[in-house]
Design brief:
Blueprint lengths: L2 E2 L2 E2 H16 L4 H12 L3 H17 L1 H7 L14 H16 L4 H8 L4 H18 L12 H60 L1
Antiparallel strand pairs: 1-2
Helix pairs in contact: 1-2, 2-3, 3-4, 5-6, 6-7
Length: about 200
């Protein structure tokens, strides 16, 4: 049985049929993905990603579209990422990892929960990660120099603020210690004076 990106021929036909039926009945594709995921034991996100990848393949191969769809829906060609948008994506993932968030969670937050935008960011990140896989590095490490410098500047500024706060706290504690030392000396003087007066009184008696 032939496969396409890990999906069998029967699975593709079943998914295509569910999607076509939903479109004709004004149903939601998200419900189709959820139902198909439940029936096959796959993740909903994987089903969604595969569906759109398959549609793009159908757009490039008319015979493939005719084989699986009675009327294959058109998929707009993805808008190319510019440098600013790519940097934004990589920085979001990097900052998310620093906060122990998964790559997917970071991307969802960047997209504001928008499913189509999340898929767009996710596919771009996967493409970047795949291109660097042979180097054993994660994609977010390959930020342009300008972006890296900006991140380093932010980190240095944070370190400087922390150091300044520590210095201020040390100065405050030192002043407090000096004051306590002065008070302690004053108390010793008072006690010494009182003891001297008591001793003088005894000698008088």
């Amino acid at each position: 049985m032939k496969k396409f990106h890990g999906f069998t021929d029967d699975e593709i036909r079943a998914l295509a049929l569910l999607a076509e039926t939903a479109r004709k009945n004004n149903g939601k594709l998200s419900d189709v993905f959820a139902e198909f995921a439940r029936k096959t034991g796959r993740a909903k996100g994987s089903v969604r990603n595969f569906y759109y990848e398959f549609l793009r393949a159908c757009g490039e191969d008319e015979s493939l579209a005719k084989e699986y769809f009675s009327s294959a829906p058109k998929v707009n060609r993805a808008r190319a990422f510019d440098e600013e948008e790519t940097n934004k994506l990589l920085l979001a993932v990097r900052e998310g990892r620093r906060e122990n968030k998964s790559v997917r969670r970071s991307i969802i937050e960047l997209a504001g929960g928008d499913e189509k935008l999340t898929l767009r960011y996710q596919n771009k990140y996967r493409s970047l990660a795949k291109s660097k896989a042979g180097e054993g590095e994660s994609a977010e490490k390959f930020l342009p120099v300008s972006a890296v410098r900006r991140v380093k500047a932010e980190i240095n500024a944070l370190v400087e603020r922390i150091a300044l706060s520590v210095r201020d706290e040390n100065d405050r504690l030192k002043k407090k210690a000096d004051l306590l030392e002065q008070e302690n000396a004053m108390l010793k003087g008072i006690l010494g004076k009182l003891n001297g007066e008591k001793l003088k009184d005894k000698n008088v008696i």
